[in-house]
Every structure is written in C-alpha cells, then in structure tokens.
Specification:
Layout lengths: L9 H9 L2 H15 L4 E11 L28 H13 L4 E6 L9 H13 L3 E5 L5 H10 L3 E3 L6 H7 L5 H14 L2 E3 L2 E3 L5 H12 L7 E6 L7 H8 L7 H14 L4 E4 L8 H9 L4 E4 L11 H11 L2 E2 L5 H8 L4
Parallel strand pairs: 1-2, 1-9, 1-10, 2-3, 3-4, 4-5, 6-7, 7-8, 8-9
The protein binds S-adenosylmethionine, 6-(5-methyl-2-OXO-imidazolidin-4-yl)-hexanoic acid and iron/sulfur cluster (SF4).
The site of iron/sulfur cluster has 8 residues, from loops.
Length: 336
C-alpha cells in the first residue's frame, strides 16, 4: 500500500530518475493503478482570455513583451465571449475549462469580470481553472468565493535554474502565490516545463519542490517546451538542436512525478503536438492521466480533437467522466 509522502529527498528523487527505464515505468504504472483508473484520461480545454503584452520576461513565453514572437496583445475578453467558448468546450466533452491571462498579476479593476467569468463557467457544470499570475491573499479569497475550483501557477523548473529563465520575479514569489491559493481553499495546479536546457539535476529539483509542498498539487502539468521563434529559449533551441529534450528523459520526468505524487492528476501538457504517438503512449503508461484538448493551447498549436480521438481509439483510452472516486477514498484512509 503506497503512502503519500511529502518528505522526499533530492537523493531519493535522483535515484528514481536513475532507475532502468523499464523498472521506472513499472513502478510508476503500478502506483498509477493504485490511485487512478489507468485507461481514463481527463480532458481539459485551454483558452487565453487575455493574450500577449506581459511585462514578465519568462524566456520560454511568446506573450512576454521581451519576445519578438509576433503575438499581438489583446484586452481581457468579454465575459459572454468566454462563456461561449466554454460551452463549445463542454460540447466537445471537456471536463475542465482553464483560462489564462498574460499578466504579472491581476489588477483589482480586473477582478469583477474575472469573478463573473468563474461564476458563469461553473454554472455550465464545468470545472474552472484560472492562471492569472501572482495573487494576493485577498484576490485568492475572491476567486474562492466566486467558486474557482483550481488555480494554475507553475514553479516551471528547479530553484537553481529558475533565475536563468526568468529574472522579473523570484522562485519564492511563485511559492508565495501557491500558498495564498492553498490558504484560500482553492485546489492547486502546479507543474513546469521540461526541455529548457536544464540538467537532470534541475529536473530533480523541479519534482522535489512540488513533491515536498505541504500538500501535493491536485494537478501537475508537465509541459515540453514549445520552442517559439523570437523567445530566448526558442531561439536558443533553434541554434542548438541537440539541446532538445530526449523523449525518454521526458517520460522519465512524468514517471517520477507520478511515483512521488501518487494522487495528483499528472497532465501531459504543452508539446504534444510535436510528440510521437509512441512517446505519448509511454507517458500514459508512466502515469500521465490528463491532457489539453483542442487545436490551440494559449498561443501555440495543440494536437486537435480528431488527432486525439484517433490516438485514444488506438490506445483504448477513454475520457475521464468525473473526479475519480478512488482519489476521494484514498484521502479518507488512515495512515499506518
Ligand atoms: N501569466 C501566467 C503565469 O505565468 O503564471 C499564466 C500564463 S503562463 C503562459 C502559464 C504557463 O504556461 C507557464 O508557467 C509555463 O509553464 C507554460 N508555458 C508558457 N509558454 C510555454 C512554452 N513555450 N512551452 C511550454 N510551456 C509554456
Ligand atoms: C500549463 O502548465 N500549460 C498551459 C497552462 N498551464 C496554462 C499553457 C501552455 C502554454 C503553451 C504555449 C502557448 O500556447 O503559448
Ligand atoms: Fe507572462 Fe505568464 Fe508568459 Fe511569463 S509565462 S511572460 S508571466 S504570460
């Protein structure tokens, strides 16, 4: 019986990464089966409700003002337009509607519209998730009151590599917002990006940060860097193609996330569009049980519904219909 642990050491996590690949996959798949229905995958839909013009300097992001990516800055979408897109997502079978804004943090004047959006999407019977940048405790409380189910705020990588990717905020700022979200009683969605030129040891640090939070994030998105021309990291990768993350190393990261955070939904997130079916299948074997559907992420292309329907049929996967009862049971079980 696998216990939920938040006292993982870096050495233990490094040792998991070092396991023979088939052994790592076997352990991850076994734990996956203990906590989740292994052939069901949660479908989430993303919508950028405010695109581009972001003052932050995240080296991977097409929406930073520092990037020369051609992404045009827009205003916050009208509430009704967002609700229309949510209705389409629901019709397409999505369970969760995730809305992203290219902000360092929401301004207080933005909050009434955000609250209205959360209420409206929730009233459709969709789970709501927002990612709006840093939040104050008060803003987190307002979102909770509006009925927000999840807040996404990624730690992105290990603490040592963070300042190589982003200089306009600190790792601690990210952790503070995660704490504010937790304290407000909103479920936490936090993960990061693999393939930004980080080392194995940075990936160990990344998983270690998440797996040693007081409570594991309920959702852990693992993104593969989408290299966007005009961003620091996109251009670096174009110049040094060998820096591209190895598929097996990506799957290892998913497997280690699954083993260390057994109850979390591990989301195979950005980067699927350029991933082979075989690599995605290995990710599902390694414990990934959530994806973003549709043909667009925030600004980058995504696999698309037809492609995913074909993949699911080939692999015998089905859409997860509801938050799994198995997870609820595990929480209720007493520790030994
Ligand atoms: N501005 C908010 C923030 O940074 O928290 C929300 C939006 S931001 C685009 C959400 C996340 O998307 C980032 O934390 C990062 O992990 C991911 N992301 C952004 N650009 C990406 C890219 N090119 N490839 C992979 N993941 C990316
Ligand atoms: C997350 O971890 N991945 C999503 C979501 N959270 C907001 C965003 C991926 C963005 C990919 C690049 C783009 O579309 O611009
Ligand atoms: Fe802004 Fe978020 Fe992009 Fe960073 S990742 S530049 S905070 S939109």
């Amino acid at each position: 019986m696998t216990q939920i642990r938040t006292d993982w050491t870096r050495d233990e996590i490094a040792a998991l990464f070092d396991l023979p690949f088939t052994e790592l996959l076997f352990q991850a798949a076994s734990i996956h089966r203990e906590f989740h229905p292994p052939s069901q995958v949660q479908l989430c839909t993303l919508l950028s409700i405010k695109t581009g013009g972001c003052p932050e300097d995240c080296g991977y992001c097409s929406q930073s003002v520092k990037a020369d990516s051609g992404v045009e800055a827009t205003k916050l979408m009208e509430v009704q337009s967002v609700l229309q897109r949510a209705a389409q997502a629901k019709d397409a079978g999505s369970q969760r509607f995730c809305m992203g804004a290219a902000w360092r943090n929401p301004k207080d004047r933005d909050m009434p519209a955000i609250v209205e959006i959360v209420k409206g999407v929730r009233a459709m019977g969709l789970e709501t998730c927002m990612t709006l940048g840093m939040l104050t405790p008060k803003q987190a409380d307002m979102l909770k009151e509006a009925g927000l189910d999840y807040y996404n705020h990624n730690v992105d990588t290990g603490p040592e590599y963070y300042e190589r990717v982003i200089s306009s905020r600190k790792y601690e700022d990210r952790l503070d917002t995660l704490q504010n979200v937790r304290d407000a009683g909103i479920n936490v969605c936090s993960g990061g990006i693999v393939g930004m030129g980080e080392t194995r040891s940075d990936r160990v640090g990344f998983v270690h940060t998440l797996a040693t939070l007081e409570r594991h994030p309920e959702s852990v998105p693992v993104n593969a860097l989408v290299p966007v021309k005009g961003t620091v990291l996109g251009d670096m990768l174009a110049d040094t193609p060998l820096a591209k993350i190895d598929d097996i190393e990506f799957v290892r990261t998913v497997a280690v996330a699954r083993i260390t955070m057994p109850m979390s939904m591990v989301r195979l997130s950005a980067g699927r569009e350029s991933m082979s079916e075989a690599t995605q299948a290995l990710c599902f074997m390694a414990g990934a049980n959530s994806i973003f559907t549709g043909d667009k992420l925030l600004t980058a292309p995504n696999a698309g519904d037809d492609t995913d329907a074909a993949l699911f049929a080939k692999l015998g996967l089905t859409a997860l219909q509801q938050e799994e009862p198995m997870r609820a049971c595990k929480v209720a079980e007493p520790a030994e």
